[in-house]
UniProtKB/TrEMBL annotation, chain A:
InterPro entries per record: Bact_2-comp_sensor_kinase, HATPase_C_sf, HATPase_dom, His_kinase_dom, Sig_transdc_His_kin_internal
Phylogenetic classification of the source organism: Bacteria, Bacillati, Actinomycetota, Actinomycetes, Kitasatosporales
Name of the protein in its database record: Signal transduction histidine kinase
Domain of life: Bacteria
Organism, as annotated: Streptomyces spiralis
Residues covered by the Histidine kinase domain: 288-389
Automatic annotation (TrEMBL), chain B:
Record family assignment: Belongs to the sodium:solute symporter (SSF) (TC 2.A.21) family.
Subcellular location: Cell membrane
Classification via InterPro entries: Na/Glc_symporter_sf, Na/solute_symporter, Na/solute_symporter_CS, Sodium:Solute_Symporter
Membrane topology (UniProt): Multi-pass membrane protein
Gene Ontology CC terms: plasma membrane
GO biological process: monoatomic ion transport; plasma membrane acetate transport
Name recorded for this polypeptide: Cation acetate symporter
Chief localization: membrane
Pfam families for this protein: SSF
UniProt key word Cell membrane: yes
Length: 403, 576
């Protein structure tokens, strides 16, 4: 008996899970029954249908999004058939009479050129085909015709012409918003390209000066440092791919620290603690090195003793947790907040806010930098990197470096 | 068994696991160590970790028990468990690594760009994980019961508590080292006693015993019936009985039981004279750990064997804790090398359990009646060697068994908790606290369900329960992975339909079998070994629905497949 019960549990649990998921999806549909007069009720229904049609279009017009929104738009207009086209082909046909696709495309050239709506009779050999009339309403974005919304009905109707024009305007607004989204994304991409891989010119001058100082006294050391410098700059100036692996980034940090150590000698003590599981994690290119550079700067600032820096990378389930700590001068949290918000930009702060922006851009707002600091109390920077994120692939050469 | 040695051994394994997990990180303090600290995990270390996580209670205890009860037919289990990696190596390992996916839902999303399929894959990961955790907890309960006489459920509760505590507290930080350590511990725990056992067997005059004749007692042996038991006799049996047989109470009296089925009450003792053949327990007696699915197998051995082969060959690739490990490989080629090493390590390990099974049939044949056949590995050192040596070896085996429960259970718990945290628990609430709190909640949830089920379900043989988990995995994830990697016309609706039909059918079959609804007959065989029909069903549905929805092929499919199949070095050169 207990076996039967347990078996039942095992069978029911997945169903429950599926039910829970479905429930969460369908819970978004508000239940309007019993609220307001029939007219208000109808208004709610219409607004609700319109709000359901909008989200797919926000991703721009493709066959997929057109297919998903056409269904909603047709119920909004209450016609037998509705089709969405771009300027060359039918993207989606919802409802009956799909055999009119070709004919409609042929008749669309006029409205697509002029940008004005039109209604025309369709020819059809099938006697009881309900699609006799087509109402065309062009979709315009920035005064340019991008396609058309075609509503088909059994007879001519002025109401349908008016309604189709209004719906087409609604769709056009969504498409304009989509266009806006796209240009915002492009802007951010351009910003990232401009911001990425900024190694500070000071670092280059200082490194070269240190190397120069070793050329006479210790040529072998100078040669090693030059090679480190070459490796580091090759990594920072590379132009392919926006992402790298944690292993590669750590190698770059290694070269960077070797150069800094040549300058500051024993004043810098670095401890590294890395869980090997997280080394293949993909992350935005050069997003940890600026944090280490920041730690070095803060650690040595206004101090004569040794600066201790600690870098840890831990495995935390589906994420990798990278922590960079120094015991230096620290910072006023309020000032730091302003720097990260872009309201203030003292020297050195640009690195932090740049990294923060890029992390938020790639992984979403809950993966920005988490910084714990106070004046005189050092600084601890925590970065959470998801092990998998759609669209994030390293083009690094981890394999060759590991061999 | 002497619990004075075994309890400290088990405790030692638990403590060592937690310590290696917490302090096993590589630390460097000078620049010259930098390279060492940031070196990726090599194929051999990773392979040991995968093997450590993979070799569960089913492998450590279950196979020996099955071989003991049912003979060499059961060797298909170790063969299947190992060969699963061959399929993984040939079709999945390198492309899966190159996909960059950490979990199976990640893979579904990377390949099909669909949140719906991702959630569905997550649901199946949780289902398979729970099914697989169940026998681990049961095995732990059995082990502790045999070792110390504790109540059956206690061992499961102990393992569940240790795993939840370490995983939720953020322990197991260096999981690769922990699991690799567990592999070598498990191998040692079986190999060293096995050497002594073989020596003892040699010293005993190397007795041989054919598997197709019934096992016989080599010395006088008293068997106590823990539950009720039905004995099916094909010839009269002379035995000394103390207790109740067929409603008649006997007190230490020698009786001869006639041909037919006899019902033994709880607590009855039977004392067998040397040379007596071991009678066969009829199906239906409670406490028959290794007997519940035997009826179906005996009726249709060929069908059952093929069902088992299909499930284990194709199911390995869909086990959530196995897939997660491949992420640690730095690139596709290393993933492939790792899999080859895993084949070697696992193959070596699987030579040992059948040895215990064969020796168990000689030296502990009464286990086939009492149903505690899964305990054969634990009992043999004491039985064959005895004394202090036997106790120490027994303690070693017990420690190894606990390592088996801990490693597999913690790997599975982490995988299931990860999916619960990411895809199931609501993503609302204050941001910074959410991750950790949710992960802890997910960990508790991941363990609570199988623990409750293990208390409820009771006697399903460990290896059979694992076989069922493999069947579900093979019917849902194998089509998704193989078609996802090798067929460019796969669509999200096709993948979802295939997983639901194949995996769902297998899941229902498993649930019905566990509930014990069709007692016997062809239907029972079909449901107890579902893989043979549910895997083709999954593949077929996936292919047909995908072909029926050609417009839904994700836009970036060509690029995604190119990334799966192009070696990384070549890719870097193309882009450079």
């Amino acid at each position: 008996m207990s076996g039967f019960l347990a078996g039942l549990c095992v069978a029911v649990l997945p169903l429950l899970a599926a039910g829970f998921w479905l429930g969460r999806r369908t819970a978004r549909t508000p239940h309007l029954g019993g609220l307001g007069t029939p007219v208000e009720h109808a208004t709610f229904q219409t607004l609700h249908t319109a709000s359901l049609a909008a989200p797919p279009l926000r991703a721009g017009m493709t066959e997929e999004t057109a297919r998903r929104s056409a269904r909603r738009l047709r119920s909004l207009l209450g016609t037998d058939a509705l089709c969405l086209t771009d300027d060359t082909q039918v993207l989606a046909w919802d409802g009956v009479g799909a055999h009119h696709r070709g004919e409609i495309m042929d008749r669309l050239t006029g409205p697509l050129d002029t940008g004005r709506g039109e209604a025309f009779r369709l020819t059809c050999e099938i006697p009881d085909c309900p699609v006799r009339w087509a109402v065309v309403a062009p979709l315009t974005v920035d005064d340019r015709v991008h396609g058309a919304l075609v509503a088909c009905a059994p007879r001519e109707s002025a109401v349908l012409v008016r309604a189709a024009a209004e719906v087409a305007r609604f769709v056009s607004v969504q498409l304009e918003l989509a266009e806006l989204d796209r240009s915002r994304t492009r802007l951010i991409e351009a910003e990232i390209k401009a911001l990425r891989a900024q190694i500070s010119p000071h670092f280059i001058f200082n490194s070269l000066a240190v190397i120069a100082s070793f050329v006479r006294t210790d040529p072998e050391r100078a040669r090693e440092l030059l090679l480190e410098f070459a490796d580091f700059t090759r990594y920072s100036f590379r132009r392919h791919g926006d992402f790298t692996t944690l292993a590669d980034e750590l190698h770059a940090i290694e070269h960077y620290l070797a150069l800094v150590r040549a300058r500051f000698g024993d004043r810098l003590a670095v401890t590294l603690q890395i869980a090997p599981e997280v080394l293949p994690v993909t992350l935005p290119f050069l997003c940890l090195q600026p944090l280490v550079e920041n730690a070095v700067k803060h650690g040595l600032e206004g101090k004569t003793g040794t600066c201790r820096i600690r870098i840890t990378a831990q495995d935390a389930g589906a994420e990798a947790l990278v922590v960079i700590e120094d015991d230096g001068a620290g910072m006023d949290p309020e000032l730091l907040r302003r720097i990260l918000a872009g309201e203030d930009s003292p020297s050195g702060g640009i690195g932090l806010s740049n990294v923060d922006d890029r992390l938020r851009q790639v992984y979403g707002d809950d993966h920005g930098l988490v910084i714990e600091t106070a004046p005189g109390a050092g600084m601890k920077i925590i970065v959470r990197l998801p092990k998998y994120q759609p669209g994030v692939h390293s083009s690094g050469r981890l394999g060759q470096l590991a061999d | 068994m002497n619990s004075a040695y075994t309890v400290p051994a088990v405790a030692l394994v638990v403590v060592a696991t937690v310590l290696v997990g917490a302090f096993g990180l590589r630390v460097s303090r000078t620049t010259s160590d930098f390279y060492v600290a940031s070196r990726t995990v090599g194929p051999r270390l990773n392979a040991a970790a995968i093997s450590g996580e993979y070799l569960s209670a089913a492998s450590f205890l279950g196979i020996a028990g099955l071989v003991l009860v049912q003979g060499p037919d059961m060797l298909w289990y170790p063969v299947g468990y190992t060969a699963g990696y061959l399929v993984l190596l040939l079709f999945v390992a390198a492309p899966l690594r190159r996909s960059g996916a950490y979990t199976l839902p990640d893979f579904a999303e990377a390949r099909l760009a669909s949140q719906g399929v991702r959630r569905l894959a997550g649901a199946f990961v949780v289902g398979v994980g729970w099914l697989y955790l169940l026998p681990q907890l049961q095995g732990a309960g059995l082990t502790l019961a045999v070792l110390t006489g504790a109540p059956d459920a206690l061992g499961g509760v102990v393992v569940a508590a240790v795993v939840v505590a370490t995983v939720a507290a953020g322990g197991m930080r260096s999981i690769t080292f922990v699991q690799a350590f567990q592999y070598w511990l498990k191998l040692t725990a079986l190999l060293v006693p096995a050497l002594f056992l073989v020596l003892a067997w040699q010293g005993d005059g190397a007795p041989r015993h054919a598997f197709d004749e019934p096992a016989a007692f080599r010395e006088q042996r008293t068997v106590r019936v823990d539950g009720t038991l039905d004995l099916r006799l094909e010839r009269p049996l002379t035995v000394t009985v103390s207790g109740t047989v067929d409603g008649r109470t006997h007190h230490d009296r020698q009786t001869t039981l006639a041909v037919g089925t006899h019902h033994l009450e709880r607590g009855t003792r039977l004392t067998f004279a040397p040379g007596t053949a071991v009678p066969e327990a009829a199906r239906g007696g409670t406490g028959g750990m290794s007997t519940s699915l035997t009826a179906g197998r005996e009726e249709r051995p060929l069908y059952a064997t093929y069902g088992l082969i299909v499930a284990t060959f194709l199911g390995t690739m869909g086990l959530p804790h196995v897939v997660v490990r491949f992420y640690t490989s730095p690139h596709g080629v290393a993933a492939r090398r790792t899999t080859v090493a895993v084949l070697g390590l696992i193959g070596g390990f699987y030579l040992l359990p059948p040895l215990y099974g064969a020796l168990g049939r000689l030296y502990a044949p009464e286990l086939t009646i009492t149903g505690n056949a899964d305990a054969a590995v634990l009992l043999l050192p004491d039985r064959m060697i005895g004394g202090l040596g036997g106790d120490l070896l027994g303690a070693l085996v017990a420690g190894g068994a606990f390592a088996a429960f801990l490693s597999t259970a913690s790997g599975l718990t982490m995988a299931v908790a990860g999916v619960l945290t990411q895809d199931v628990l609501p993503s609302r609430g204050p941001l910074p606290a959410r991750g950790v709190r949710h992960f802890r909640l997910g960990t508790v949830l991941a363990m609570a369900v199988p623990l409750a089920a293990s208390v409820l379900v009771g006697g399903l043989p460990v290896a059979d329960a694992v076989g069922l988990a493999f069947a579900v995995s093979a019917s849902s994830f194998c089509p998704l992975l193989v078609l996802g990697i090798w067929w460019r016309r796969l669509t999200p609706p096709g993948a979802a339909a295939g997983m639901l039909t194949g995996g769902g059918a297998a899941l229902v079959a498993v649930a019905v079998t566990m509930a014990g609804v069709p007692g016997s007959g062809p239907l029972h065989a079909l449901l107890a070994w579902p893989a043979l029909w549910s895997v083709p069903l999954g593949f077929l549905t996936m292919v047909l629905v995908s072909l029926a929805t050609p417009g839904r092929v994700p836009a970036g499919t060509a690029a995604v497949l190119a990334r799966f199949h192009l070696p990384e070095q070549l890719r870097a050169e193309v882009q450079a």
